[in-house]
Design goal:
The chain is mainly α. It has helices spanning about 1-15, 20-35, 40-55, 60-75. The N and C termini lie close together (about 5 Å).
Length: about 80
């Protein structure tokens, strides 16, 4: 499940229409999820917090917001 979320986040990061500040936050989430030292629940909480910040951004496109919500759904099933 985490790999699925990371794959989706990588796709969003590579999207040319994604704003630079959002790409930086997405990279931060990917790093958190790939961290092998933290427990899954800690990684999930940290990632969800940043994803919530991203989804509340004014300058993101509806497509990107929908994909962020998809990642949130994936992480919430963990």
């Amino acid at each position: 499940m985490i790999n699925s979320a990371i794959t989706t986040l990588n796709e969003l990061k590579e999207e040319t229409t994604t704003p630079k500040n959002i790409k930086e936050k997405i990279q931060n989430i990917i790093s958190i999820l790939q961290n092998t030292e933290d427990e899954t629940s800690i990684k999930k909480s940290k990632a969800l917090e940043i994803l919530e910040q991203i989804s509340n951004e004014n300058n993101i496109q509806p497509f990107l917001r929908t994909q962020i919500w998809n990642v949130v759904s994936i992480l919430e099933t963990l």
